[in-house]
């Protein structure tokens, strides 16, 4: 496989097709090598338009979806960010590459350990093992929270742990075939919400049920 050609194709065709056109985010994606975070057995599919299995019932989102999430999050150097679901560590690296401080929490110890080995040379990242599907108070408040797996519902703690004006990017849906990515912004009157796009991805393990918070 021509690796460089595959990387260029990912940037020029897949990611642009998802509406990510800003040089700022294309540059971030170009400098973080996705192949480094893909399990060895799937390395040939590192730049393919597909979700990559990580094991333990979890997946690495496709390049286009991750790029769209990055654009929606729009991380900045001054941000304190909570990432719920470290997974491969690739999206963690994207968030941190702009200089943001990232607290990334993963429920599955083996995935966290694998991500740690890939992220050890990158600053501003703190990894933790635990269940952050109900929020994570340790480094709160956060300027941004990004939930990289799907949830049937959102726990109230996420709104509580955001700074005023802070944003929450979350994949929410009661049905795996009807998941949507939302952007929530904390205001004095509560959370405003904007539907961004649809996606299909595994649910976070041990997440809250629909009775917690209904959109």
Describe the structure.
The chain has helices at 3-17, 23-31, 63-73, 90-96, 109-119, 157-160; strands spanning 52-55, 58-60, 80-84, 101-106, 125-129, 142-151, 162-172, 179-187, 190-199. 27% of the residues lie in helices and 29% in strands. The radius of gyration is 16 Å and the shape is globular. The protein has one domain (3-199): Vaccinia Virus protein VP39 (Rossmann fold), CATH 3.40.50.150. It is of the alpha/beta class and 215 residues long. The strands form 2 sheets. Strands 5-4-3-6-7-8-9 form a 7-stranded mixed beta sheet. It has a two-stranded antiparallel sheet with strand order 1-2. A hairpin with a 2-residue loop joins strand 8 (179-187) and strand 9 (190-199). Helix 1 crosses helix 3.
What's a quick, concise take on this entry?
This protein has 215 residues and is of the alpha/beta class.
- Write the element-wise H/E pattern from the N-terminal end onward: HHEEHEHEHEEHEEE
- Uncertain spans, ≥5 residues at pLDDT below 50? none
Tell me which CATH architecture applies here.
3-Layer(aba) Sandwich
Q: What overall geometry do the principal axes of the alpha carbons give?
A: globular
* Radius of gyration over all CA atoms, rounded: 16 Å
Mean pLDDT: 91
Strand content: 25-35%
- The percentage helix is 25-40%
Structural class: alpha/beta
CATH topology: the name is: Rossmann fold
Number of strands: 9
Q: What is the CATH homologous superfamily assignment?
A: Vaccinia Virus protein VP39
What would CATH call the class?
Alpha Beta
